[in-house]
Amino acid sequence: MANTLHEHCDFLIIGSGAAGLLTAVKLAPHGKVALINKGGLSDSNTYYSQGGIAAVVDKEDSVESHVADTLAAGAGLCHEDVVREVAAMGRAIIDELVAFGTPFDTRVDTNAAALDLTREGAHSHRRIAHVQDATGKAIGEALLRHVDAHPNVRHLQNHVAVDLITSARLGGSPQANTCIGAYILAPDGQVNTFTASHTILATGGVGKVYKVTTNPHAATGDGIAMAWRAGCEVMNMEFMQFHPTCLYNPQGSTMMLTEALRGEGALLVDKKGRRFCFDYHEAGELAPRDVVARAIDHEMKKSGSDCMYLDARGIGEDKIRHQFVNTNQRLLAAGIDMGRDLIPVVPAAHYMCGGIRTGLDGTTGIGHLYVIGESACTGLHGANRLASNSLLECLAMAEQCAAHILESGSLPARDRVPLWDTSGIRPEFERVPIKHNWDEIRATMSNYVGIVRSNERLRRARRRLHLIQEEIMAYYWQHPVSQELLELRNLSIVAELIVRCAQQRRESRGLHYSTDYPETLPVAVDTILAPGTGNP
Ligand SMILES: Cc1cc2nc3c(=O)[nH]c(=O)nc-3n(C[C@H](O)[C@H](O)[C@H](O)COP(=O)(O)OP(=O)(O)OC[C@H]3O[C@@H](n4cnc5c(N)ncnc54)[C@H](O)[C@@H]3O)c2cc1C
Predict the structure, then answer these.
(1) Which residue of 34, 251, 283, 515 is most buried, as measured by CB atoms within 10 A?
(2) Are 204 and 222 in contact (CB under 8 A)?
(3) How far apart are CA 93 and CA 453, in angstroms?
(4) Residues framing ligand 1 (Cβ under 6 A)
(5) Residue range 84-142, pLDDT digits in tens
(6) Is the whole model's pTM more than 0.85, yes or no?
(7) Could you tell me the end-to-end alpha-carbon distance of the chain, in angstroms, rounded to an integer?
(8) Which of 49, 378, 486 to mutate to test the pocket of ligand 1 (most atoms within 8 A of CB)?
(9) Which residue's CA is minimally distant from atom 37 of ligand 1?
């Protein structure tokens, strides 16, 4: 198959969730933007964000308090300078989103101009700006209107980034490695070459590495795997946040039940109706997510139950109908009336606190390559993300990334970049190996690298992943690339990175709990892996 297209643009943005969209809005007035995604807005984590964005907006609240809450949730591992910078940007980001047309909920009781702020677990103030319980969708739609209206933006849906093109891969020095662009799989099966002055990976999370996840299909860690293959370091990948309360629905798909429900008074109970969260933490249902997720996991294992229950009956019909419209509708569709019934819940893989090691502006160890949003690790979340800090981080990174790009020089356009090589490729005749390995990776991660870990479980996971990777690599180089194959390869890489980071951490901290090292060490150290270095 011939490679037919070579395009050059100023800014190649891969991913159109909150991080990619805001970056596109900021860069569009300054040059040609190619914005690539695997699917529509609904195939991004952004679309599913329910609770909202944490920001200091209320007079009674303070940046200092937001910083203190973030540091406490992060269990000693947050980078305080980053936390301060992001918390201080909150108000301006909300104002900007309002100016872009995000219809944040306002208070109906006292002052219609004031934002309605909810309170979520481990926040000491009401500081979550929201649009009902579908905040990410509303932000995404507002940004998308600006992106799609700008003549400088080419928004290419259903395109899949395959790999980065770097100077080192073209024979240049690895020490002065520069990103030149990426190979992109188009819907017609062609792998096209996109070169750019600046390449931005905004490809979101990795939830699909686990069997039960709140993330949509796109969350296969593609950007993390691509940047790692190109030579970037990863940081703190052992810290996968499991959302404590996802609908237990063995017959159908799961959905996340926002923390705001517990903020508004919903209780967690076992099948006999007993509240158990206070057995684990003095804040009960409003304890940090990792504590609540482990409490549910422990109660399920202790009682042999498939799930625990969220009792939202005390919230009241009025609030349920107005504040939790989306949740209520989706639960009703699953046959549950949250005003009357207990809601069966289980923890599910939700948010990756680690990722490619970057500055808050998304800069990486590779020139002209930026990684932003959930794929990046800036040090904001430390060992555990404070609820609703992630959209804030995505948008803060987008602002700073665009500013950094606009201050830095362009790369000269390259006309001689090798085309995607399809020699030696034979037609695919069966898909079983892809499906089988996909299922095996997710089962391995769920069984051995879930909420509670041990040395033996991690060793087992590593051994299995090694075998799976060998098979995938053999298959990869002999068959035409497809979205499924690319995702499988990336999934196997991020799974291995999670395991390797977990093996390197010889303590329990935040979201990482090991039965072999239950103590927290006195000094908190980031886990950093560099490509090509030895195993832990
Ligand atoms: C159910 C749910 C609820 C949440 N609630 C909240 C909340 O209330 N508050 C909060 O702060 N955070 C919340 N989060 C987390 C937050 O939504 C994410 O961290 C954030 O939206 C990530 O944005 P992003 O732009 O980095 O990535 P995403 O929004 O996930 O976007 C990733 C984009 O990359 C594209 N992509 C991926 N791989 C490729 C590839 N190979 N080629 C081309 N394109 C690719 C995808 O198609 C997509 O467009 C929630 C997450 C979930 C799943």
Answers:
(1) 34
(2) no
(3) 38
(4) 14-20, 36-39, 43-46, 48-53, 135-136, 159-161, 202-205, 214-215, 218, 222, 256, 351, 373-374, 388-391, 394
(5) 999 999 999 999 999 999 999 998 776 557 899 988 878 999 999 999 989 999 999 99
(6) yes
(7) 41
(8) 49
(9) 203
